[in-house]
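Aim 2 progress update. The chain analyzed this quarter is reproduced below.
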Amino acid sequence: MCNLYTSPTEQEVWDYWDVSGPMPPLRFFEGHHVGPKKQGQFLRADRATGRVGYAAGRWQLVPTNWPDIETYPYETNNARWENKVRVSRTFKPAWLAGQRCVIPVRGFYEPCYETGSHVSWRFESKDGHPLGLAGLWNAWIDKTTGQVLDTYTMITINADDHPIMKRMHKPDPNDPEKRMVAVLEPKDQQTWLFGSPDEAEQVIGQWPAEKIRAAPMPKRERAQRPPDPQGDLF
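Predicted structure tokens:
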């Protein structure tokens, strides 16, 4: 699962992904932390132009017909690929509608408890480029005002056999499974956005360990992290 990541700057997204359309009137800074229910940026297929479009929205996928976005009680910033995306009442409509997205990430965080206490590890691409994570997006509509707000979620997959990710998160005897976000290879991101459902399924897989730069966060950087409202953010 993922509950905290840092966002690239808007210019980095513009340059690395060559997105179409104007940038929205939003401010994102290098190192900007994004947590659940906060605003982040994502990329989606612009079917009219055949290019990648830029969007921003709330990191918590909320069904279109939910009456009040602030009261949605479920932690839907992550979507389990194996048993949720294609069957859940929350995620299935977005999947069937082809509302797949790529979430630009500079780095993300995982908690490791091998020392006996919570130590946040930061994960980045070894080549220094931003990462593109697989996700889904949805448009929530305020029935009172008619305002449309975009929301999105990250895909997560099993990591029980991953040499690095299996070390993360607190051991839980009631739920021993380890999870990781679905990092898309650059060559596969167009397929995830524009391909058929069958083609999109083929690009979901584990992030190879040899492409990962991962290390415990320095104590000074840990002290600068935003408050942890859920008690187990990484």
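Residues 5-223 form a domain with the hypothetical protein yedk fold fold (CATH 3.90.1680.10). The chain has a mean pLDDT of 87. These observations will guide the mutagenesis experiments scheduled for the next reporting period.
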